[in-house]
Amino acid sequence: MRKTIWIICCLTYILVSCESKAQTYPDETWSRAENPEAMGWPDVERSNFTRYIIDSTNITGLVLVHKGEIVFEYGDINENSYIASCRKSVLALLYGKYVDNGTIDLDKTLEGLNITDVTELLPIEKKATVKDLISARSGVYLRGSNGGDFRRFAPDRGSVEPGSHWLYNNWDFNVAGHIFEQETKKNIYDEIESQLATPLQMQDWDRSLQEKSGNSDLSKFPAYHMWFSTRDMARIGLLMLRNGKWKNTQVIPKDWVQEVIKQRTSYAEAQKSVPVLKEDGLDLGYGYMWWLIENTNDPKLKNAYSAQGAMGQNITVYPNIDVVLAFKTNSVYRRRNSIQTQMKLVRKAVEIFDAQ
Predict the structure, then answer these.
(1) What is the pLDDT of residues 206-237, one digit of tens each?
(2) Does 119 reside within a domain?
(3) How many domains, in total, are found in the chain?
(4) Cβ neighbours of residue 36 under 8 Å, at least 6 residues apart?
(5) Which residues make Cβ contacts (< 8 Å) with residue 133, sequence separation at least 6?
(6) Distance CA 29, CA 36 (A)
(7) What is the spatial distance between Cα 314 and Cα 328, in angstroms, rounded to a whole number?
(8) Which residues form the signal peptide (predicted)?
């Protein structure tokens, strides 16, 4: 019996060791694939992709990572710039540690958390939970302190029960940031540094750049804006691809990563609530502050998911092919990309990959 247990333990150790060796992570700098073509990324197709980026987009930096190594890069991938709504997906990761240890209770209501704003909440709105906020299903249609959402498609206030209707509204996300800090007694940016930037050995993270802003006359909850480089965004994507594990450390609870990318809203419901989403070029559902690529016959895109931000900020994870895409459009250059352009890039980036 003891011998059998010993053999099982040895086999388990060997399997774990093999898995660890099979997964590549960057250290202080990214490793670049010596022969991308041999990994399924033909030289001709990568050259064509470069021309497409130059001719058809305003992207300022892009990285493609396959099996933990960079197989393609374009532009300035180390400059820090505003990542717009990708910030919400970063916040979703920060939640994991504190949901796991019970510090944050996703079932707490706005009333129970003493959430008030410039405009008083209705009784029905106070019933919304933290879970409703981070899935964009709160039923609270107050204006956020910053723009860039779909509030114009909102039903009348008080007309829907919390949890019953999806609507991408910045008020939800800004309040989710406030609740994170209220419940944990931690600053969001300090948590990015301790939970993500340090363990992931981010090359360009600069705490001094991070700053909240918003119109306090509209809402007392500011937007927690963030500045990252493209190559550091790719580290976040790789962390997600590896189910929250970085080398030998479980940085984000594995179960929480799966909760984040679990469908909370289907693409059909999202498009019914916000009809303009039908024009995006990909059908997108929603999890906990991450977008889910759905209704696709392309095996490379199946199970893929994205963090997305205005003007052209994106992290897309393609689990089926072990690939991460990150791209940026630095607003200081007065350049921007439509969501349709972003979705074309999400498709084209892996069209050049030959899985054979």
Answers:
(1) 999 999 999 999 999 999 999 999 999 999 99
(2) yes
(3) 1
(4) 43, 46, 66, 71, 72
(5) 172, 173, 175, 176, 179
(6) 18
(7) 7
(8) 1-22
